[in-house]
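Before a computer can learn anything about folding, someone has to put a protein's shape into writing. The outcome of that step, for a single protein, is printed below:
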Amino acid sequence: MKNRRTIHFLASMLIVQFAMTACVKEEPAQLEIEVGEVYEGGIVAHVFQPGEPFYVLGETHGIVVAPTDQVFEAQWGCQGTRVTGTSPELGRGRDNTKRVVEWHDALPNYYTNPTQCHPNNDGTVAAKLAVEFRAATGQQDWFMPSLKEMNYLYDNRDKIGGFSVEEYWSSCETNANAACVMSFITGEQTSRNKSEYHRVRLIRFF
């Protein structure tokens, strides 16, 4: 009788232990991703670390940069009128890009009548081309980086590769006539007339 009770008790414990084990959800494994790797349509430009904005404990997040040097070359947009609301801060590149596109879309036929802004404007808008860009692997959530997002690209430029000696547009605006640019040779951040042509290297977050 005693042995039966012991066996019954042990069997009950095993059932309880199995049930508890079945209820425990395994935490997803953190991705092992390094800067310079090909990933999600581009090249990993930065992986957020503890203490940085956008870091999430137990998860892997970062920035992917478009794989080619000259994704395109274009004007920033309408010279002579301020878009307003853009920012050089980390995490603002996507919003900047959307804001610039919506602003130009609202102008009366800017793309076919760009000289309404300035005689040198030709209707190209870097932000517009950014949102239309699609990687060969299908990703289409690309945007022009803010200046602080470009800092990550500059810090890891040797691992990313392919940067030109030419300056690159950022998505932030300086004033009515100029917008932000950055050199990936010197790291200098300055501004240029919006009707100038500069290269664009797009990014996306993952």
